[in-house]
């Protein structure tokens, strides 16, 4: 990617002229530095800044060569200058601006021409198209790097972050066009007036992310309240959440489904708040009456969460995460595909975590291999076999012996290798005989 970025920058400098105004590049580099210095961290880990508007304005006013240079030099962030990003990460980050800037500027000139910028319907239309190219390429390249680094799918990273900033991104192109209009009509210094809307946009990014984080932290606190009733289950909900999300990724769940698994995993046992401690913490086998009380916790959990409209997608997970694939589960005795898909995912995660942790009724937990064997044994009875297969592909059991996992094909030696091995064994045998 860095090589592609260097090639794009070189091509821009050789094929397109730079602005003759000696103050043009320093001014737009400074503006871009200010807008890119403090990006906002988005839900899946990528960073978002408002530097795209100044890079696009440079493309409209100065062409591909100026846009590529400003994108290369002006997109330094404070975390890069502080050494928090490795050198290859810094190079990649800048390449993800240079390449989109180059193609966006070329697209703009292909539509609007290479003449001096003027405010018109044509240049506005060209600005929209070039902005779409710039933002799409930048988002895809940034998502790809994060996906490789964290093991997430590009689609999940892209869709998650786009959901946070998508509407604001749509404003980049007309805002950059307005910056170019003001720069031509009034002077470059007037672009400073756009500092407030750009700062407001960054604040909006940050606020949305903070609200989501606060919501997640609140949910985590609720799940901790359940775990606090029983020290044996401390951290259970968090581990179930992590396993569920990994299974969801193996099954290519979309971002909304992954979020439902994330929050549903934390809240799936919230109904145990209403279960008496004498039942919840009983070390012996439960009586029939006690089992009825315990089996009501999914229903109680649904009742507790139902008033929170934002958590409506999590309700089927909470209510049905103890349904069995053959219909003998609870509370509604649903069968097979009739059980919500995400509840079937969480059921596998919940069972594995429970089997591999100490409980009052089983102080010695099962090993991961034993737990995996139980999941395979009851696949099609208690668990959806598809979900068990997906779980077997996660890193939680990647190194665990699993009779249900397809065996790896043994490599077939080439004829030359076979001949060499045979010759080697023959010579060794004759030497020993001597």
Which short descriptors sum up this protein?
434 residues, Hypothetical protein af1432, single chain, 2 domains, two-stranded antiparallel ribbon, elongated, Arp2/3 complex 21 kDa subunit ARPC3, 2 strands, mainly alpha, 19 helices
Any chance you could write out the topology, listing elements then pairs?
Blueprint: H1 2-15, H2 24-36, E1 40-41, E2 47-48, H3 51-73, H4 78-81, H5 87-112, H6 121-150, H7 154-170, H8 172-185, H9 195-228, H10 236-250, H11 255-267, H12 277-280, H13 288-294, H14 297-305, H15 315-320, H16 341-355, H17 368-377, H18 385-392, H19 415-433
Antiparallel strand pairs: 1-2
Helix pairs in contact: 1-3, 1-5, 2-3, 3-5, 3-8, 5-6, 6-7, 6-8, 10-11, 10-16, 11-16, 16-17
Folded structure, characterized:
This protein has 434 residues and is mainly alpha-helical. The chain has two domains: 2-211, Arp2/3 complex 21 kDa subunit ARPC3; 230-392, Hypothetical protein af1432, CATH 1.10.3210. Helix content is 65%, strand content 1%. The chain is built from 19 helices and two strands. It has a two-stranded antiparallel ribbon. A hairpin with a 5-residue loop joins strand 1 and strand 2. The radius of gyration is 29 Å and the shape is elongated.
């Amino acid at each position: 990617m860095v090589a592609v970025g260097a090639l794009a920058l070189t091509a821009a400098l050789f094929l397109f002229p730079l602005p003759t105004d000696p103050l043009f590049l320093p001014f737009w580099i400074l503006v871009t530095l200010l807008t890119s210095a403090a990006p906002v961290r988005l839900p899946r880990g990528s960073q978002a800044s408002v530097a795209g508007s100044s890079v696009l304005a440079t493309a409209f006013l100065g062409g591909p060569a100026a846009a590529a240079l400003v994108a290369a030099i002006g997109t330094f962030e404070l975390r890069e200058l502080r050494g928090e990003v490795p050198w290859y990460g810094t190079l990649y980050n800048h390449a993800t601006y240079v390449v989109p800037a180059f193609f966006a500027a070329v697209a703009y000139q292909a539509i609007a021409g290479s003449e001096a910028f003027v405010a018109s319907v044509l240049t506005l239309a060209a600005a929209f198209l070039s902005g779409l190219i710039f933002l799409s390429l930048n988002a895809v390249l940034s998502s790809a790097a994060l996906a490789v680094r964290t093991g997430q799918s590009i689609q999940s990273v892209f869709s998650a972050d786009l959901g946070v900033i998508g509407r604001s991104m749509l404003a980049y192109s007309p805002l950059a066009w307005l910056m170019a209009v003001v720069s031509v009509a009034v002077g470059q210094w007037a672009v400073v007036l756009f500092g407030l809307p750009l700062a407001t946009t960054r604040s909006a990014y940050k606020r949305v992310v903070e609200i989501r984080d606060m919501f997640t932290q609140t949910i985590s606190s609720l799940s901790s309240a359940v775990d606090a009733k029983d020290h044996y289950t401390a951290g259970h909900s968090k581990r179930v959440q992590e396993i569920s999300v990994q299974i969801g990724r193996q099954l290519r769940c979309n971002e909304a489904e992954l979020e439902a698994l994330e929050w549903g995993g934390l809240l799936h046992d919230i109904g145990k708040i209403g279960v008496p401690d004498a039942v919840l913490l009983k070390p012996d086998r439960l009586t029939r009456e006690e089992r009825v009380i315990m089996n009501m916790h999914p229903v109680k959990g649904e009742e507790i969460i139902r008033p929170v409209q934002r958590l409506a997608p999590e309700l089927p997970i909470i209510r049905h995460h103890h349904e069995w694939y053959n219909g003998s589960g609870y509370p509604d005795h649903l069968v097979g595909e009739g059980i919500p898909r995400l509840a079937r995912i969480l059921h596998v995660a919940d069972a594995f975590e429970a089997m591999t942790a100490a409980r009052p009724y089983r102080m010695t937990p099962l090993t991961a291999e034993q737990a995996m064997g139980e999941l395979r044994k009851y696949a099609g009875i208690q668990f959806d076999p598809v979900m068990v297969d997906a779980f077997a592909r996660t890193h939680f059991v990647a190194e665990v012996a699993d009779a249900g996992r397809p065996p790896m094909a043994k490599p077939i030696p080439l004829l030359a290798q076979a001949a060499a091995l045979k010759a080697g064994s023959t010579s060794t045998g004759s030497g020993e005989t001597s």
